[in-house]
Structures are given as structure tokens and as C-alpha cells.
Amino acid sequence: MAKTEPTSPGVGCDVGTGNIVSARKTAAGVETRRVRDAFLELPLESKKMLKLANVSYVERGEELLILGDAAMDTANIFGREARRPLSAGLVSSSDVDAMEILGLLIKNVLGEPSRPGEHCYFSVPAAPVDRPGQDVIYHRGVLEKIVRECGYTPTAGNEAMAIIYSETAKENFSGIGLSFGAGMTNVALAMNTIEGLSFSVGRGGDWIDTGAAKSIGSTASRICAIKEKGVDLNAPQGRDQEAITFYYRNLIEYAIDQIAAQFMTIQGKFSLPRPVPIIVSGGTSKAGGFLDLFKTVFDKKRKKFPIEVSEVRAATDPLNAVANGLLIQAMQED
Amino acid sequence: MSSTMSGEVTIMCLTDEVILRDLGVHLTRGHRVNVPMSTAMRSRDLSAAKLDGTVSIQTLRSAAVRAQEYTSSDTVHSQAPRHVPAPPQVDLSLVVAALERLSGEVQGMREDLARLARAGATREDLSGLLARVEERLAQPIPVFGRQVDRTGLVPNPPTPLEEPTEMFIPSNLTGGAQVSDLKVSSETSDSPQLTGTAAALKAARKKR
After folding, report:
1. Interchain CB contacts (distance < 8 Å): A and B
2. CB A156 within 8 A of CB A143
3. Calpha distance B22→A300 (Å, rounded)
4. Cα-atom radius of gyration of chain A, to the nearest Å?
5. Could you tell me the pLDDT band of residue B124, with boundaries at 50, 70 and 90?
6. Is the CB of residue A228 less than 8 Å from the CB of residue A41?
7. How many CB atoms lie within 10 A of CB A287?
């Protein structure tokens, strides 16, 4: 694939459970590259069939690997589930295969650096507050190593803070950023570029799929397919969509309650001299009617919410907001 | 629970996990949630959890008071680049629990001695019990994995468990296989605001 020459050095890379996205400034604008964070292992005998179907693969030892979007498509054909290198948003230290797959995917999304040691800001979630004992140190270390092996100078950037950088310039980089991902939801609060609070919760799109599937005796894959086909969370049709809406609502309530609870721990120590906007982003927030549902849920909790909120709005580009925010930070390095 | 102006309480989990089904609340240790006073008072699960000692309940100031604090003219703008949370408090309940266990052991040994004395214990019986006592005294008092020194009058502060500073991460995570034709979707959007945003961020950071 021909790559446009970058005009400004620096690249942002959002490494998520569902997708890996890079953003780079070029003469034509901002180039974003995306690949599904997934892979599928098949036996060597499948080679002929994959060639006939024109599906690209990688041969590794005694097996074939299909990476990215093709992995999801092929898995559906074989009636299997594609594997993911990340679990609930984080790298698992016991899965070296998954780390290598992640390395390959990131390498392809980043491409070659425009110059040796080009700065790359990659996303790291905050530690989950509802999973005590789980930290992000190992996860950050693995991504740092991968990005360095790709020829870049790596810097970790908080996922939700990246949303604040990309979406709240008019509020002088102040606001509450929420990134509703597949494996987790990240939150950050900042005032005048200064981070006051950041955390994550272990609920995201996958949690919705699993919960909705369990509640109606279906499968997570089927629920995910229904979601991606299109659902209006404000007017769900049928039992499947009602279940999906129920878990979406629950996720939003949970995230808002956690923001309030976490803010209470720093209350009085972090000044908020004016109301701030809430920005919702992430692949899970792309469901039809998500913003309206969020506003409805928030309005019920607004009176007791400890932070004054000026407005609730969606990121201008929910899938790329994190990568764009990381790119903005990378551009500061020169 | 006493009534307050705000009608809100904070429920904090004191155990590994607590589920309050009639409130739709699921908490893990140390985490807390606010609920309306009226709802909390109606909750049977909360009452049971309070009796069990698995939750603590505190009343909150009203939202109006909180809002007033935020809009107060004498609010000082923070100069700190990042909030540093307060250091964790020492959990005396762990020490109390360890002392209670010790008391139980001492009581058990006392009863053994009394029983042996009533039964006309021989020198060998008493030697065996004495050996057990000496063996127990030689062991440090465990307080959730930390050891309390017996030599001083005041227990020494527990030595923090040393966290490993190095983590092993495999090398060559990107070079295992060549993926020349991996399909990566690419799009270029005209984003004039991005350059402006980057410049604005630079300026904002210089100002602070």
C-alpha cells in the first residue's frame, strides 16, 4: 500500500482490544491506518483453501496465521472465534504467541518511521479500579518494546487523556474524556492540560456482548454481529436489542458512578474553577443512539454528580480520537 | 444511619466483595458508591451487610454544599501538574486480628496445661507441651504476610515486600514472520484543526 510522505514527524498509535489505529500528519491531512486486533490459527492443510479464497496468511512453523480483519471474516466461515492478543485491554504475560501477533499487527499499522527514532506515542489504559491487583506495567513494557523494535522512540500516553487533547482545545484542554473500548472503559479528568484523575473499569463492548448473550441464551458473537449491523439504543426492536440496550445503560451508569466515586477521593485537592464538558468516544460508543442514552442516564444523576458539567458531546471521530490525541502529543516532541 | 440534609449515604466495601442485589450494587474491597438515603434505608441487603460488618455507611454533605464549594471565589487554582493521592492509612484491623489469633492460641495452651495438671501429667507430657510453646514463640507473628519483630517493646514497622523492578519481556516481538500483504485499512482526512490543536496544546503547556 503506497504511503503518503508525512509532513510532520510523529505518530500516534491507539492499541485497543478491538482495533489498532495509527495517525500521522501528511501533506493531504491526517492519515489513519486501522487493523482489527485479532488472529486465527489454522492447520497447514488449509493453505489451498485460503489461496483459493484469496485470503492472505502467514506461515509459522506447523500452522498458518491469519491476521487482522481477515481473521474475523475467516473465523465466521469456519464457525470459530478469532483470538485476540489483548485480554480485557491488557497483554497477558503468559501468552507469548499473542505478544508476537500484537507485534506484527502494530508493525504493519505503524509502518516504517519517517526518520530513525521518530517519536511514537502509544496508548496505555489506566489501571482498572474494579480489578484490584491488576496493573498496566507489564502491558506498557511490552508495547514500549514493540514500538522500539519498529524503529520509533516510544512514549506511553494515557488513553482517555488523548481524547481530551484531541477534543477539548476550545476548553483549553479541560474536560472528562471517556473511551468506551471493547475490553475496558477508560476515563480521565483534566483542567487546563493538567490531569487530575484517570482510571479504567473492566467493562466495555465485550462485557455488553457477554452479558446480553447470557441473559437471552445467545452467543457473544451473535450479539456483536447484531450490534455492528445496527441498533438504536433509544428504540430497541426485539429481545436481542432490548438486552443489548439494558447492558449499554448499565455500562453508562457504572462509568458515571465510578467517575463520581473516584472524584470524591481527590475532592478538595484538585480544583475545578469552571464547568467542564464530557466527551464520549471509543468503538463501543458508536452504537446508534449512544449519545442520547448517555445524556438521558447522566441527566438523572446530574444533581448528585460532584463535578459541574457544561455539556455532554461525542468525539468528532470516535474511532480515531485516541490516535489523533496521541499524534498531537507526538507532534509536540519536535 | 442518621438523617441528613442531603439524603445520601456512602457505602464502602470492607471485604473482598459485596453484592447488594436490591440496590443493584456490586463492590470490591475499598470501593464505594453513593446512594440516596431513602433507598439505602429500604435495602434489606444493605442492612444485612452492615450487620455482617462487610460494609461501612457514611452520610454525605448535600450536593448544594458541594456545588457551592466548587464555585467559591476563594478556590485556589492548582499548580500541581498532577494530583498525588494521600498515602494509604495503616489498617489496624489486621493487627487486631493477628492479636486475637494469638490470644486464642495462648488460651488453648493454657487449657492444655490445666488438663494435663488435672490428669497428673508426667514430666514427658509437660516437656512436649513446652516444646510446642517454644516452637510457636520462635515463629514471627504473621500479619497478612508481614512479620512483626518480637525483640523490641514496640513491633518494628513491617518491611515492605520488595517488588521486582525488572520484568522479563521477550525480544524480537516484531520479527517472527514477514507479513507483506496484511490488509490495513487506511484513510486520509482533511484535518486543518489538528495542526491548530497541536499548537494550542504547546501554548497551553507553556502557560501553566
Report:
1. 185
2. yes
3. 19
4. 20
5. low
6. no
7. 21
Helical pair A238-264 and A220-229, crossing angle rounded to 10 deg: 90
Q: Chain A within 8 Å of B182 (Cβ-Cβ)? A: yes
Environment class of residue A30 by beta-carbon count within 10 Å: exposed (0-12), middle (13-18) or buried (19+)?
A: buried
Return d(Cα B123, Cα B114) in angstroms, integer: 14
Contact B193 A331 (CB under 8 A): no
Q: Decide if A100 and B188 are in contact by the 8 Å CB cutoff.
A: no
Distance CA B88, CA A279 (A): 31
Out of A175-189, B103-117, B126-140, B163-177, give the one with best mean pLDDT. Answer: A175-189
Q: List all residues 6 or more positions away from A23 whose beta carbon is below 8 Å from its beta carbon.
A: A11, A12, A13, A14, A30, A31, A32, A320, A323, A324, A326, A327
The CA distance from B153 to A38, in Å, is 60
Q: How far apart are CA A57 and CA B181, in angstroms?
A: 8
Q: Do B167 and A331 touch (CB under 8 A)?
A: no
Q: Which residue has the cell 510446642?
A: B132
Give the whole-angstrom CA distance, residue B165 versus residue B167: 7
- CB-based contact B155:B148 (threshold 8 Å): yes
The whole-model pTM stands at 0.68
Burial class (CB in 10 A: 0-12, 13-18, 19+), A248: buried
Question: Could you report the per-residue pLDDT of A12-63, keeping only the tens digit for each?
Answer: 999 999 899 999 998 888 999 999 998 898 888 888 888 888 888 888 888 8
Rounded CA separation B23/B21 (Å): 5
Contact A305, A2 (CB under 8 A): no
Question: Sign (positive/negative) of CA torsion A77, A80, A81, A85?
Answer: negative
Asked whether residue A175 carries a pLDDT value surpassing 90, the answer given is yes
Report the distance separating Cα B40 and Cα B56, nearest Å: 12
Cross-strand partners of A178: A187, A280
- The C-alpha atoms of residue B123 and residue A301 are separated, in whole angstroms, by 73
**B173 vs A169: CB contact, 8 Å cut-off?**
no
Do residues B28 and B17 touch, judged by C-beta distance below 8 A? yes
Specify the pairing of strand A194-201 against strand A185-191.
antiparallel
Residue type, A181: G
Question: What pLDDT does residue B75 have?
Answer: 38
CA distance A95 to chain B (A): 11
Task: Give the DSSP letter of residue A76.
Answer: H
Q: Look at residue B140 in the predicted model and tell me its pLDDT.
A: 56
Digit-coded pLDDT (tens) for A228-262 = 889 999 999 999 999 999 999 999 999 999 999 99
Q: Does A3 score more than 60 pLDDT?
A: no
Tell me which of B70, B184, B207 to substitute to probe the interface with A (most A C-beta atoms closer than 10 Å). B184
